[in-house]
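It is worth pausing here to work through a concrete case rather than discussing structure prediction in the abstract. The textbook approach is simple: state the sequence, then state the predicted structure, then interpret. We follow exactly that order.
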Amino acid sequence: MKHLISLKDWPAEAIFEVLDLAVKVKAAPAQYADVLKQKTLLMIFEKPSLRTRISFEAGMTQLGGHAIYYDMSTSPMGGGKETIEDSIKVISRMCDMVMARLFHHKDILEMAEHATIPIINALTDNSHPCQILADLLTIQEKKGDLKGLTLAYLGDGYNNVTHSLMYGCTKVGMNIRVGSPEAHMPAVEITEQCAEFAKESGSGMLITDSAAEAVQGADVVYTDSWMSYHIPKEEEAVRVEVFKPYQVNAALMALAADDAIFMNCLPAARGAEQTAEVIDGPQSVVFDEAENRLHAQKAVLLKLSGVA
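Step two, the predicted structure:
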């Protein structure tokens, strides 16, 4: 647990440890107010963010530490004037932890290879583990024991959130169903890895092009933006037509369990990946989910720093 790069690398026990710690931190924040006193987190941003920056910066402050915002677009590292290897070796001598939100997964792997301090993946094109820890915390709060629950994901199956959800669910014993168009199914390699994790945890996994099949009886219905940061403007209209059958609307939610919850990691476009009546309706927990980024990430910071 030196780093958090992908939930693929974390055993189920480590995931549950962080979730249990997040529950304690959320319930009694004052008890952890000075735990990271004199500790510094460097936050490296190549991709823009709202929830990631605020949750990590507020989290470090609430734990008694300090966070530095570092914009790669105005730095030697981002301009190609200094290598990642050299940069991270310098940073390791000045800071206690690094959180990086990057385009390419290979860059976070390179950081982890050369760092002597914990590296946290706050999003790459391959993985988004911090989001999924917050998601699992939210589901646990709303549904209790995670094992045996079924999560249905609808939309673009070939993205970092979907892949990380697959890792997270199959590690903790949740069933996961992904409903995506044929051309946007999850990566074969990740699907194969998660099939092995599902065998170990006793969970199930289904990849289908049928939104109805994915949602039928599900405890959690989850969707994400159809327009990731890297999607060119000229491709957006085509993507809307491709993903329309996977929009989470009232009719689709009705196929899930009666007490199903609706999740979206945000930002969300009403009228696109979900309708307003769903995201603003009584089954939606999207703002609880967003808040839990703070609590789950505080737990990650505490665990990787070695103080909890």
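Step three, interpretation. The radius of gyration is 19 Å. The longest strand covers residues 40-45.
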